[in-house]
Automatic annotation (TrEMBL):
Protein known as: NAD(P)-dependent dehydrogenase, short-chain alcohol dehydrogenase family
Family named by the database record: Belongs to the short-chain dehydrogenases/reductases (SDR) family.
Molecular function via GO: oxidoreductase activity, acting on the CH-OH group of donors, NAD or NADP as acceptor
Record-linked PROSITE patterns: ADH_SHORT
Keyword RNA-binding applies: no
Gene3D superfamilies: NAD(P)-binding Rossmann-like Domain
InterPro entries to which the protein is assigned, alphabetical: NAD(P)-bd_dom_sf, Sc_DH/Rdtase_CS, SDR_fam
Length: 261
């Protein structure tokens, strides 16, 4: 099959946080197909990383982030594309009262501060070259918060969306584009496991569990979650020269889930 984006990112160095699974893996594959040299970060080593450069690090800590910045600078010298994809929530169910300070702090570190630290580490060389693209992967929960266990996650993603806009105002005049992508529900392997647990606990089928998640979101007009590759394709476009005029904007990719304009 013809590769429509071959070599579009040739010569570019791209870093994808959480690039070993789910959406991050799909983004890393898409950028590599477009010709970029791809660096992926996660806590545990993937079974295979092909030609991608893997750096093990816990990005929810300052030390983990510092390690990544140093290794990229010493091995590659520069970074052209930074995809802040890593994120998630593991806070317990039980409502607002069950969520501790520790849960809040960990979720905010993972979903907001990790990106702030990486941006701060890589922006100086991007600004010096007047070139670079930074993507922040947020979530529709930044605009459509769910309660129960994801209160901190939703608040952290709202903070990330706001921060991304503010940062774009500061650095876009100096040549660096900053964008936010807010996916709706994505069919990742982690989410498949989540559905299996719901089905097992509630003694329902996977289809019924899928419907219960879609109902909790107020329905997905498209009738299904996104495939990771569908979100990755859009991010591949955003970081390409075709999107050179785009900066400071948030793109919701949710199959129509958010009900408001
Ligand atoms: N899935 C969805 O439905 C959905 C919806 C909206 C938005 N999003 C957003 O999309 C992004 C990707 O989500 P996903 O569902 O694709 O995630 P995922 O499948 O759970 O994968 C998470 C990735 O991040 C890595 N990771 C997690 N914690 C880390 C840490 N502290 N330090 C370094 N790496 C870490 C994981 O590897 P290790 O575990 O080995 O570290 C893995 O590579 C997140 O920002 C998420 O909030 C997802």
């Amino acid at each position: 099959m013809e590769n429509h984006f071959s070599n579009e990112l040739s010569g570019k160095i791209a870093l994808v946080t959480g690039g070993t699974k789910g959406l991050g893996k799909a983004i890393a594959d898409r950028l590599e197909k477009a010709g970029a040299k791809v660096i992926i970060i996660a806590r545990s080593k993937p079974e295979a990383n092909g030609n991608m450069h893997f750096i093990p690090a816990d990005l929810s800590t300052a030390a983990g982030t510092e390690k990544v910045i140093k290794e990229v600078q010493s091995k590659f010298g520069q970074l052209d594309i930074l995809i802040n994809n890593m994120g998630g929530s593991d806070t317990p169910a039980g409502g607002f009262a069950a969520i501790t300070d520790e849960n809040w702090e960990k979720t905010i570190q993972t979903n907001l501060i990790a990106a702030v630290r990486l941006d701060r580490g890589f922006l100086p060389q991007m600004l010096a070259r007047k070139s670079g693209v930074i993507i922040h992967v947020a979530s529709i929960q930044g605009r459509l918060p769910l309660h129960e266990s994801t209160l901190p996650y939703a608040a952290a993603k709202a903070g990330l969306i706001n921060y991304s806009k503010g940062l774009s105002k500061e650095v876009s005049p100096k040549g660096v584009r900053v964008l936010t992508v807010s996916p709706g529900w994505i069919a990742t392997t982690t989410n498949t496991g989540f559905l299996e647990r719901i089905a097992e606990n509630a003694k329902i089928t996977i289809e019924e569990a899928t419907k219960s998640v879609m109902d909790a979101l107020g329905g997905i007009p498209f009738g299904r979650p996104a495939l990771p590759a569908e979100i990755a394709e859009f991010i591949g476009f955003l970081v390409s020269p075709k999107a050179n005029y785009l900066t400071g904007t948030e793109y919701v990719v949710d199959g129509g889930t958010i009900p408001t304009i």
